[in-house]
Design goal:
Radius of gyration: 18 Å
Number of strands: 8
Mean pLDDT: 87
Number of domains: 1
Helix content: 40-55%
Order of helices and strands: EHEHHEHHEHHHEHEHEHEHH
CATH class: Alpha Beta
CATH architecture: Alpha-Beta Barrel
Strand order of the largest sheet: 1-2-3-4-5-6-7-8
Low-confidence stretches: 128-156
Length: about 290
């Protein structure tokens, strides 16, 4: 998976408005010059996503697609383009499908990597499973705290975890860094990542309009201390000016909700994929 300077990374939800449309949209986005395309796997409890992507997930789920349908779509797309492709998903559907099976079958189909939004580096790498330093939807500390953090961690430590004897061998891994992440958390995330580092533009869920956090260049500098992997910034990137600003200090800019919202508003159009590509070219992608 290649992520060079000034990389544009669009996000779409698989199966929104339907899987045939998603396939055409992904191919159209590849033609715009995207370096990597994030394909979101719909999930019934998308805690890291705002209303726009949540709605797209619920629409996709209503079709009854299986995880294997998304992998087959990747295989068809890969036969026509060499654009980078990653899944952005949650731990539940991944575990349900099977870790080794996903690693093997998705890679064989042409998928390059995977980002599991609610998987912490501690869970993936083993060892300490506390979640300090990565607060909010991209970690799980807020979800566990009402149950009693100490009790839940003590109980969990006695049970084998799904990653105790597994690591992705074929798919590259992407983990989230928050603006509030401690230096130790950043180091762990870098250790767990093999594709690129996804830096969250702000704490919270996807989609909400936001100004680029002034601390982000410093966070990127911190990341560079621990890894040579490229850095992409997402959550709230909605305009050409946002993309240009991100490119000043990071390799990639991720745009999700703005594209998903456009798809939802134009889903009845005959040439939806062409309309999406036009929107990206006119509204989101700087030209030089």
């Amino acid at each position: 998976m290649k992520l060079g300077k000034r990389s544009f990374i669009p996000f779409v939800t698989a199966g929104h408005p339907d899987l045939e449309s998603t396939e055409k949209i992904v191919l159209a986005l590849a033609q715009t010059g995207a370096s990597v395309i994030e394909v979101g796997i719909p999930f019934s409890d998308p805690v890291a996503d705002g209303p726009t992507i949540q709605l797209s997930s619920f629409v996709a789920l209503s079709h009854g697609y299986r995880f294997s349908d998304y992998i087959q779509m990747i295989e068809r797309v890969r036969s026509e383009t060499d654009v980078g492709l990653i899944f952005m998903t949650y731990l539940n559907p991944v575990l349900n499908y099977g870790l080794e099976k996903l690693d093997r079958e998705a890679a064989a189909a042409g998928l390059d990597g995977i980002l599991i939004s609610d998987l912490t580096p501690e869970e993936y790498l083993g060892g300490d499973t506390t979640t300090d330093g990565l607060k909010g939807p991209q970690g799980r500390s807020e979800d566990l705290e009402p149950l009693g953090a100490e009790t839940s961690r003590s109980f969990g430590s006695e049970l084998p975890g799904p990653f105790d004897s597994f690591a992705f061998q074929r798919l590259e891994t992407v983990f989230l860094v928050a603006p509030t992440s401690t230096e130790d958390r950043v180091r762990r995330i870098c250790d767990a990542s093999t594709g690129f580092i996804y830096l969250v533009a702000r704490t919270g869920v996807t989609g909400k309009q936001t100004q680029i956090d002034r601390s982000l260049p410093a966070v990127v500098g911190q990341i560079r201390k621990f890894t040579d992997l490229p850095v992409a910034v997402g959550f709230g990137i909605r305009s050409k000016s946002d993309v240009e600003q991100v490119w000043e200090f990071a390799e990639g800019a991720v745009v999700g909700s703005a594209i998903v919202d456009f798809i939802e508003r134009n889903k009845e159009c005959i040439d939806l994929a062409g309309r999406v590509a036009g929107f990206v070219n006119d509204t989101l992608l700087p030209r030089f």
